[in-house]
Predict the 3D structure of the following.
Amino acid sequence: MCLFLVDAMYLGNRLIGYEVYESKSMGFIGMTEKQIIDKLSRDEKVYGFWLKNDVEAAKEVLELDEEGFSMKNLQVKSGVNTLTWLKESENNDINISLIVVKVINEKNKKPVYETVNARHARVTYCCPAN
């Protein structure tokens, strides 16, 4: 079973949790910040996050995994049908992010990428023909 970070959920300006895609059930579940920190502390994977030791606060905090999973920004749900970006200052030319959850490689064929997004869609894409 693999967990993939999909989006953050806010109530006003307050973080209430995250939505993750669970590969075994092929479904989306909600998790609190504490639940994710506990999983990562037990060396379980939640792709999209890593734990950073915050010396000033004397605790571990969640950070987007830019190097290991290329999670440079995150979509945020703050209301019904409302998606924004966590880092608004960055140049976001796209309106929805795709998270690759599986790569299907068949012999003598181009790879097929299974993706999910914050609107709970599962879509597969293949490389265009040369």
In short: Residues 114 and 124 are 4 Å apart (CA to CA). Residues 33-41 form the longest helix (9 residues). The mean pLDDT is 88. The radius of gyration is 16 Å.
